[in-house]
Amino acid sequence: MSDGPAARLQKLFEGHRLTPTQRRIAHCMVRGAAEVPFLSSVELAELAGVSQPSVTRFAVALGFDGYPALRRHLREVAPAEPPRAAREESYNEYQQAVEGEIENLRRLATMLADPSPVEEAGRLLAGSSPLPVLGLRAASSQARGFAYFAAKVHPDVRLLDEGGSMLADRIDAVAAAGGSALLCFALPRHPREVVEALEHARGAGLKTVTVADSAFAPVARYSDLLIPAPVGTGLAFDTACAPMLLGRVLLEAMADALPDAQARLESFDARAAARGLFVD
């Protein structure tokens, strides 16, 4: 599978130390990869919510003479097609939101053409017992869903979906019990407590595996392995189909790395049948 526009942009930004403002521009460009080569610096600045000079400085930080040179480069490496907005102008806002999520899933599929990051994450998670799963606020449902299914195949999964002063204590308890890795779901808006929890986990000796909306998210510098999955922004509240699916992919990779996963599943099914847990 060939790289799409978003993947090519991601590679362009890799290896550069970007300021928070520049990461914001980069994130905006990745999310709108098909449209960016057609935008002026003023339009990109408005889209990213930054100043026009910030866009110029961003282009220079990437090694270009200015934004026009960056845009020429993008047009050379990206397929020449009209912006998606022009192709979808007949859609209503709900359809546009769905189409946006479909595009996010396509980007995730492109990223998974190289399965090595997910396989590495699966091995790290399988090798950690206990296995803490962190997700606060908007990401709590992602963490809870992963933890629910992971407990069917992993011997000791600990859900961390509440902040507060005891969060650090619970991370310390995982490390003291022999845990070696932590899985984090981090979605916008990024709570300060998540950043602090990741920093604390690394200080306690845990490897941090993070599912985030972007490789430029604030949690990136505190993550040993970050796998991005974009969120949808077409509605009043963000949609997270891609992060949810990536969580299930990580669950599959972890199960593949657990030698007794199938036996645990069969044991659970037998107990569920004996207790009549499900009506189907």
TrEMBL record:
Cross-referenced Gene3D superfamilies: Glucose-6-phosphate isomerase like protein, domain 1, Winged helix-like DNA-binding domain superfamily/Winged helix DNA-binding domain
PROSITE patterns listed in its UniProt record: HTH_RPIR
Pfam families linked to this entry: HTH_6
Domain (HTH rpiR-type) ranges: 5-81
Name the record gives this protein: MurR/RpiR family transcriptional regulator
Native organism taxonomy: Bacteria, Bacillati, Actinomycetota, Actinomycetes, Kitasatosporales
